[in-house]
Amino acid sequence: MHREMSLYGSLSTFKIGKEKTTTIMTQKVYTVNGMKCPHCEAHVADSVKALAGVSDAKADHDACTLTVDLDETQVSDEQIQEAVNSLGRYELTL
After folding, report:
1. SS3 80
2. Are 74 and 52 in contact (CB under 8 A)?
3. What is the pLDDT of residue 15?
């Protein structure tokens, strides 16, 4: 795997058999209301990490943020919003 960081995100190149696949990962920061503790952070981050196209997610209850590394061709903002909001205690607004 080859990974480069740029202003636009990271670029990962994978070789699968004879095919070469390039994926551009983007980092986005969302506002999430309702998180009060580290347990809340883990609950929110884990729900988003379960989505296809998400390589990492970190929540911060003090800052009310969720930082997500994602492939925008595989997962949308709306899917991330649904994953968080479906937990019932938290609200991610776009």
Report:
1. helix
2. yes
3. 52
CA distance 36 to 43: 11
44 vs 56: CA distance, rounded Å:
12
- Its pTM surpasses 0.90: no
Question: Residue 59: which residues within 8 A CB-CB, separation 6 or more?
Answer: 32, 35, 40, 41, 42, 44, 45, 65, 66, 67
Residue 6 pairs in a beta bridge with: 9
**What amino acid is encoded at 81 in this protein?**
Q
C-beta of residue 60 within 8 angstroms of C-beta of residue 68: no
For the chain, the average pLDDT equals: 86
Give the single-character DSSP code of 9: E
CA distance 25 to 3: 10
Helices marked H in 1-94: 38-49, 77-85
